[in-house]
Please model this.
Amino acid sequence: MSTASLVSQLVDTFKAQGRIVIVGASLGGLRAAEALRKKGFRGQLTIIGDEPHEPYDRPPLSKQVLKGWVPADHTKLPRLRPVDADWRLGVAAVGLDRSNRQVLLANGEKVDYDRLLIATGTRARPWFNPEQAALKGLFTVRTCDDAAKLAAALRERPRRVLIVGSGFVGSEIASVCRDLDLPVTVAERGKAPLVGALGGVIGDIAAKMQIDAGVDLRTGVAVQRLDGDADGHVRAARLSDGTVLEVDVVVASLGSIRNVEWLEGAQLASGFWGVACDAGCRAFDINGVVTDNIFVAGDVARAPHVLYEYEFMSQEHWDNAVFGAEVAANNMISLEMGRRPHLPLPSFWSGQFGVNIKSVGVCSFGDEIVFTQGSITQRRFAAAYGYRGRIVGAVTFNHGKWLPYYASLIEQSAPFPPPPPGYDRPAIFEPMPARFPDPREPTAIPDVVLTGHDPTSRGAEFRPRSR
Amino acid sequence: MRLVVDLNKCQGYAQCVPLAPDVLQLVGEEALAYDPNPDDSQRQRVLRAAASCPVQAIILEVDPPADRDTK
Amino acid sequence: MDAETAWAEAMKFENRPNPYPYFEQLRKTPVAKVADKTYVVTGYPELLALAHDPRISSDISRSPSGFGGDKPEPEPGSEHMQAYGREASIIVSDPPDHDRARRQVMRHFGPPHSPDLMPSMEPLVVQLANDLLDKVKARGNSRFDVVEDFAYRIPVAVICKILGVPVEDEPMFHAWIFDFMMGTDLGPEGSTAEGRALAEKGRASTAALLAYLGDLVQRYSKTPGEALLSKLLHDDGPDGPMSVKETTSNAMLLLVAGHDSTVNTITNCVMTLLRNPGSWDLVRHRPELIPRTIEEVQRLQSAVQFFPSRSATADIEIGGTVIPAGSAVHLIYAAANRDPRRFDNPDRFDPLREDNEHFGWGSGIHTCMGGPLARLEVNLALEIFVRRVESPKLVVDPPPYRHNQVFRGPRHLWVDFAAIAD
Model:
């Protein structure tokens, strides 16, 4: 028998009888399971999730759920097909034994695998002081349980809401507070909201958007302490500029922590930025050698992207979870010629203050920005980001129908600035510095983070903030 | 029934909203918000809305698959 | 067959029932020059790209020769197509004016400000559809014309109600619109003696329609009413009121678009279902498939086949060629909708087709404003038709077609039936 036919038999046998374990039961885990079944995997499938809920849709949690339109537990994800899996919900994975090919669960059980998909995602960074973190009225927003509690707290009409951190989620929550006509203060360490992902030029526009909507925006300011009352409920916040705010609800929007602690000791390339894998979702071990049977997808993954000089990228984007899951599933049941790369063009959206902000590419890879279409004052525009004469990202504010055009320019590494449009040119039409923050400056961790070493870029590496 | 909208694909055409206004809403002139788990009485309207999307961004589950019970 | 010939053939009246073999010929070069300053785009990815390209203008005044081809004097039909309103209507404008005007109209037409207007038309549509079938039943014979006896009445009543155009005047403006449609011929027959005569008549009727609508708008300007045209004139929203002239142009756009294309879509749906054995029974048993059926019919038959307003404002490299700045660029939705690179078995009617991202309603910022309203009308009309008309059969296939290449549809669709249920 030839090698080729032996190998082909191996693949068929695995597809029929193999055991696949997916650790992570949210969007990525679900879509991977569905993709495996769609591609003909008939073996055993086990899905492990630490939350007790069926996979659900997170984006509505900071928008229509908080507004009170949709209950937090009415966000279950549609199923594309039956997955015929053994679901272990409400139990966390706490360890990985690679020699015996087992996942260790919090309840002491061990789950055997032939191939493993790590899709454990992220969790909200908790309040830095454990004592204050126990105060009632202090929330993070990641899970539907969080969102249900915060929605209930907002319904009580608090005197003032304090949102710590003005990334996308923090800004969206501030927007909902204003829709509910609640007084809200946003405390942001950086110079402006959204600067990590979109730079200071857009950050200034975002700041004005918040202020115009009645947000009490404080930039360059940290929250040093939260004080509670006798009932253990938060009532005041002390800011680094000396002011004291009376607040009844505090939302800590401090970014995410990748759920990699359970992999300690497993000798994978896992750390602060997630689990490193190749562009085919195969995990690297700690030495940088690709493994055979361990795959990674979603928020927890970081992988090299050819469009961005092979720098490793970590994306907390919906698309990344869906496409990564599909590619991982494909590659888990294929050999070399059947494997596909996961090379997403990063895309995200955020709905806030009546504006639909959409972006494509890695804007923070750029150092220049040019407004190409529309009007800044009207908050209806398109802007492109450039790096060394090439377009690397684009953002639109209520101008989303034009974004596919910029996406195609980015995919082709087209020149920056892009060709002028035939109409509706903005008043300021020249490229300008995009003003991304110095990585040493404290700010929100951007959703897309370039890690790895590029000798010609500004900073050697993004270092984790320590408090 | 269940739905999720791929808001990356969505460009805000809003062809869907008037066909199922209790389930899909425009927030401002372009951002879409939706009820992920609407009542079954919305079924035909949601089907009309999903068919109308020029970029097919609305992903539907009209009837649950046989293995829905995960516990 | 070269591109110029294929295009001319596709435009000929004799090929109106089926221009698609010529579109297929054209698609060999998905971006093809068909006249000195005119390019037609028939490929799916190429059309998608150009519909989102801000170097493509829809401002008719920037197009080299209005709607016609490249001729020393204005092409018959081009002048009065340009006069599709003395002031540019939304369909022939660019941002920022386009965006502002569309927002102003949408404010009283759809979401976010008026999300319930279109849904509120449901009872009227249902009542009309049922009344029309009751009338057919009462006549006692077993044949009717889907166009005249069913499809036409519904969208006209709805758009008149929404705009505030008196539906009693319908016979008058129906005749004008008919002449206007007859008088725009972008093919070789347009330059014949008969073609020129029709164009002349079309110009006169367009002027009459514009005058009629201008009067109506003027009256609303002085005496506010409840419907959309009046609201536009007196709006106190963030973009303010719309001028009398611009309101008149957009009134014409909405009146024509709001009934002609919808009529054609209803007719195309019945025709397509009856042409494809098994399809009629399928949707009769599974009316939940009607929404996807309508989209598939729009893909296959595309009530608006293309809209010849666009031009390139810069050289654009696409589809293996460069469109020179200043060229007219016709995005042929009907052709791209059958591109085998995008749609498997593109000529096949498949109501269960997945990922049916077609261009039947346009693409990009000019995507049909009335799309949700049209779909509501077609969905309801078709549901009622399918439920009540028993054992329908096409009498003549292909049916006689309307003259217009852009707004293509059957002039009559005779159907024999066994009975009309209550």
User: Anything to note?
Assistant: Residues 453-467 of chain A have pLDDT under 50 and may be disordered. The CA atoms of residues 167 and 444 of chain A lie 6 Å apart.
